[in-house]
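Below is the data:
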Amino acid sequence: MTRVRVKICCIANRDEAALASAAGADAVGLVSAMPSGPGVIDDAQIAEIARCVPPPVATFLLTSRVAATAIIEQHARCASSVLQLCDHLPPDELRTLRASLPAVKLVQVIHVVDQASVDEALAVAPLVDALLLDSGNPRLAVKELGGTGRTHDWRLSRQIRERCGRPLFLAGGLTPANVAEAVASVEPFGVDLCNGVRSEGRLDPVKLRAFFAALRPG
């Protein structure tokens, strides 16, 4: 099996970005304004962190915006290498994003709730570079768009991975204790986590090392 990429999300500052990168992260996630969930920082701080992250580590801007013009404006301030679209965007908005930001990778989040989530993933996959499967619930009155610390039904994630034709990141409640099982169940391109490597809200170097040891033993 090919090497599974790792994205460490909810990065709060330059020190956390450096810690994640030194531990072996392939990408860091920078969370902008969300209706709920952890790790939110302002766009100026996102831009500062994004500037200091050395290639080839990717910088993901997590956005809850759903209009292409607003996302393009936000990206101009933050200058990340990847846009992680945490809410649903209509196809025309995705096409506008692709045309306007051809050098920026687009990663669409799919919140795996039930079988309808599989259909949603397969419909959007051709319009983006990758999918990220998480355990939020955008159907709630206050949308959950990530950072729940919950796992979801990995059998549904496996269906999406086998059929979507795009690289797939698996998120949602991953920890050092369950990441090996998650990867064996879904065989994703990458994994993404926030709470599973934190203690009292801060990135924990001990948990980081345990996570990478569980994912990449030996």
